[in-house]
Design a protein that fits this description.
Length: about 625
């Protein structure tokens, strides 16, 4: 009444309202479906986990002796916290007093909220542990499963590691030493080298029936996704029943249910697609200018986690990457500053990537430049992912059209060499390419005209290459067709005593790995035998290495090419020797070994016969007595 009277008298008034903008606290009882499973979300773990399908095991390298380290010094506040946390672990039954010869020191790490996390320094134990190679899933593969998903729920296990027991015989290996005693873990502890792999194995076993259908699991994080709310209700029931049956417990305060958009593994997932987590990007945008190589590596590591959201990521970060290379002086140039700021801006404006639809078609756009290779995968006009990489040292010498072919499978690079001819060249997979005796059918280089057209066309037909050749009225190519090398090898086999003996054994039914082909060639495990000390072997090695069609391969590549068709004793060593003596390779190819070190003078001996030295010169021409070393 008084306020109304004052307003009627012309007094100024201000109308204000107070609105509580805080989000209402979500309780377990308010969540549909979830409230039916309160025993899955206890306030604390109810005690030791039950026996499971797998236990955490610590396999050590052979002949390993126990290692014990002295406790680290701690501040008074840390000692007080240590006493409290040790008592909590004892009360829960997660640790027990130990008399183990093993002993790791204890330290504290601050959490985001300022509290302290108890950590055990197991580095010495981890060095001696046989590594478990169980694979962690690729994060980009996980997001590819979210096709048409519109409803999401996220479950985070409560102290997941403490829900898996350690194998009884390995408990003493987890012992740790502190100011207040010597203890050992009964459940899996943080810091053990194989903990991630074993826990991932456990979770995959628990949810194996649901993986890639409506559940994604990454260590102790569980994402449930569905196309409709009705589906999601059923999926939630199945997941919670599975957790309850396996006595795995979640922390309700870290769980989220019935979401249209969810943050998972540093990404924001919704029905529109996958985008970067703004909270993570804020850490990148606030990153101070790096002043050391390690700081650059840390920045590139964090930014690189989102590289599939950034077009030409490798090109943009090239100046920064150059600084991380060994022997490069640290000079922060304008190009580095530009790269540093541009990658920040690109991440802030990163697009939402669409989730690929397996039933739809994809389009790849690729590009090449002297700075790197890049491509974008698209579907229905939306970006699925970006990819890029920097050029390797030898690729920097390629012309642009060669780099473009690099993006479309290097095995098609010779397409440009025959583009002036009327040819149809279909792709033929290597596993199906069984053209017989490919190396033996290589023709010699000559200035003669093609005089035998039919055999050459038959060879092309076997290779499934359609070639149109008109009347040969002028020089078409500098090729000539000669008798096959295979026939020359078969004839030379008759002059090799070792192969003659093997042929005799085959004919009498005693040759195990040897056989005789339909054209009377001696074969070893299906490969043609090449005689020793023969002209044809030298011809074969020359063809396989320095023919105009081969381009001087290395010893490993040349050996693999030859051994698929031919065989002779000491083949690998002879191929390596042949390649090492190639003058062209020595003159043209870049050296792959480290440069020779500087000569270091030996100290003057104090007494005779105190130092005896010897030098060897190897690979000399063979003498009449067979010596090659002095």
């Amino acid at each position: 009444m008084k306020a109304s009277k004052l307003l009627n008298q012309g007094t100024w008034g201000i109308l204000a309202s107070v609105v509580d903008t805080r989000e209402p606290e979500v309780s377990l009882s308010s969540e549909p479906v979830v409230r039916e499973y309160p025993n899955v979300f206890p306030d604390e773990l109810p005690g030791l986990s039950p026996p499971r399908e797998i236990d955490f095991a610590i396999e050590l390298e052979p002949d390993t002796a126990p290692i014990s380290r002295a406790p680290y010094r701690m501040a008074p506040a840390e000692l007080k916290e240590l006493k409290v946390q040790l008592q909590e672990l004892l009360d829960k039954g997660f640790i027990r007093p130990s008399v183990s010869p093993w002993g790791a020191p204890v330290l504290f790490v601050k959490k985001k909220d300022g509290s302290m996390r108890l950590c055990i320094d197991y580095r010495e134990l981890n060095k001696l542990t046989v590594k478990n190679r169980y694979p962690l899933p690729r994060i980009d593969d996980l997001f590819d499963q979210l096709q048409e998903a519109t409803v999401f729920s996220k479950i985070d296990l409560r102290s997941g590691y403490h829900q898996l027991r350690i194998r009884d015989s390995d408990i003493p290996k987890t012992a740790f030493r502190s100011r207040y005693g010597h203890y050992e873990f009964i459940v899996m502890s943080f810091g053990l080298t194989n903990a991630l792999a074993v826990f991932m194995d456990l979770m995959n076993r628990v949810f194996k029936d649901f993986l890639d259908s409506f559940v994604i699991v990454f260590i102790d994080d569980i994402l449930i996704y569905s196309k409709t709310e009705a589906e999601h209700e059923e999926h939630l029931h199945q997941v919670l029943v599975t957790l309850r049956a396996n006595k795995l417990y979640a922390k309700f305060s870290k769980c989220e249910f019935w979401l249209k958009k969810v943050t998972f593994l540093g990404h924001v997932v919704s029905s529109e697609g996958v985008s970067v987590d703004p909270a993570k990007i804020e850490a990148v945008t606030n990153w101070p200018r790096p002043s050391t190589v390690n700081e650059i590596r840390s920045f590139l590591g964090l930014a690189g986690y989102y590289r599939r959201f950034v077009e030409d990521f490798s090109r943009i970060t090239s100046p920064l990457t150059q600084l991380t290379r060994k022997g490069t002086p640290f000079v922060w140039s304008p190009a580095c500053e530009s790269s540093f700021q541009e990658i920040k801006q690109k991440l802030v404006t990163a697009p939402v990537l669409t989730v690929p639809d397996e039933s739809g078609s994809f389009v790849i756009y690729s590009d090449a430049s002297k700075k790197g290779l890049g491509c974008v995968l698209m579907q229905q006009g939306k970006v699925v992912a970006y990819a890029s990489r920097q050029l390797k040292s030898h690729e920097q010498n390629y012309p642009t059209h060669d780099l473009e072919l690099e993006l479309n499978m290097r095995q098609r690079r010779w397409l440009e060499l025959v583009k002036d001819y009327d040819c149809e060249i279909p792709y033929h997979p290597g596993k199906e390419n069984i053209v017989a005796d490919a190396l033996s059918r290589k023709v010699a280089h000559s200035t003669a005209l093609i005089t035998k057209q039919a055999p050459l066309l038959r060879d092309f037909e076997r290779a499934e290459i359609a070639v149109s050749v008109g009347e040969v009225t002028s020089q078409l190519a500098q090729l000539s067709v000669q008798p096959t090398l295979r026939q020359r090898i078969i004839v030379a086999q008759l002059n090799d005593p070792y192969l003659v003996e093997k042929r005799r054994l085959v004919e009498t039914g005693q040759g195990e790995d040897f056989s005789i082909s339909s054209d009377d060639g001696l074969m070893f495990e299906g490969r043609l035998c090449v005689p020793e000390n023969s002209v044809v072997k030298t011809k074969l090695l020359t063809e396989a290495h320095s023919s105009p069609f081969i381009m001087h391969p290395g010893s490993t590549k040349m050996y693999q090419d030859l051994r698929s068709v031919y065989w002779w004793r000491n083949m690998k060593r002879e191929v390596a020797d042949f390649v090492s003596r190639c003058l062209v390779c020595q003159q043209v190819k870049a050296p792959r070994q480290r440069p020779a070190g500087l000569l270091q003078p030996l100290s003057v001996p104090g007494w005779k016969w105190e130092s005896v030295s010897m030098d060897f010169i190897t690979r000399l021409p063979k003498t009449l007595k067979g010596y090659t070393v002095i």
